[in-house]
Amino acid sequence: MGAVLNPFTYLAGRWTPSPRIVRRAALAALVMSVAIVVTGGAVRLTGSGLGCDTWPKCTDDSLIATREQGFHGAIEFGNRMLTYVLSAAVGWYILAARSAKPWRHSLTRLGWTQFAIVMSNAVLGGITVKTGLNPYSVAGHFLLATALIAVTTISRQRAGEGDTAPRPRVPGPVRKLSWALIATTFVLIAAGTLVTGSGPHAGDSSDIKRMPFDWASIAHVHAVAAWVVCALAVAMWLVLRVVDAPSDTRARARDLLVVLLAQGAIGYVQFLTQLPEVLVAAHMLGSCLVWIAVLRVALSLRERPSDQPEIPAQGAPQLSTA
After folding, report:
1. How many CA atoms lie within 13 A of 63 on its CB side?
2. Is 243 helix (H, G, I), strand (E, B) or coil?
3. How does strand 167-168 pair with strand 302-303?
4. CA gyration radius, the chain
């Protein structure tokens, strides 16, 4: 009696995606992980956090938003539906990574990690609704989304590499500087959730509980953390030039500085203009882009040369050697 095949093994036996398809799937998961943050911000900034007042249904009697819930219900329900698009992107990546030849277990593990974070955040989103947009739950929701962006960014990088042991491209102290940059950036993002939790955009027009911090004071703490990140980013850019790092690594450090400059400008303008919704949304997108840029710099400090030739997708035309 033959062994029973699971669906992934069955598909892998009939479909061989090219490395390019795997990389595209990884990029799709990364793009959607950023998109879900931006649309989640739109829910909060339009006061639609309780547009669907229960979970997993939109009302006690309806799975979808009703006419009575109006604009806010449509916004909140739309964001919930985008979670399915994100799940589909993650699923595509898992299937592509599993079906590629040879099977790279490291990529599928990253894919399942993405799936676990998406499911955990969906549950936390439900808890957020049921607790009336508790600000600590909202902060955790954003930090889990940040973790997803980290994993999808790593997945995108690893999809273009081999599975050999990583080889450093710069001296050890430079790599340690990158870890400090990552840690400080995460602190910056976490401080940003405290600014949000104590700020005016609670996510709904009703009386929502806020974090017990003085908003202006915590915003200044957030700004100090931002300046530390900027200082480390400038130091990284200078050090990479001194050690004559590869050109692509120096380019990523330069891109990080550009993103930080734009994000800082938006941050100060929104602070001085009483947090207009459009600028807050742009700042949330900028937060995602800064996080990605920091991770890309760190990932470029080592390399994993591919130890396997590219295998074309199943059914791809072959050049005749006759």
Report:
1. 1
2. coil
3. antiparallel
4. 22
Nearest to 56 by CA among 116, 134, 131, 123: 123
Residue with tokens 């550009």: 258
Contact 18, 316 (CB under 8 A): yes
Side-chain half-sphere CA neighbours of 242 within 13 A = 9
Q: Which residue(s) pair with 154 in the sheet?
A: none
Please give the Cα distance from 237 to 253 (Å, whole number).
5
- Any idea what DSSP says for residue 303? E
When pLDDT is cut at 50, 70 and 90, the band that residue 208 belongs to is confident
Q: Residue 22 contacts by C-beta under 8 Å, 6 or more apart in sequence? A: 93, 96, 97, 100, 107, 159
Q: What is the pTM of this model?
A: 0.89
pLDDT by residue (tens digit) across 139-157?
Answer: 999 999 999 999 999 999 9
Rounded Cα distance between 33 and 22, Å, is 17
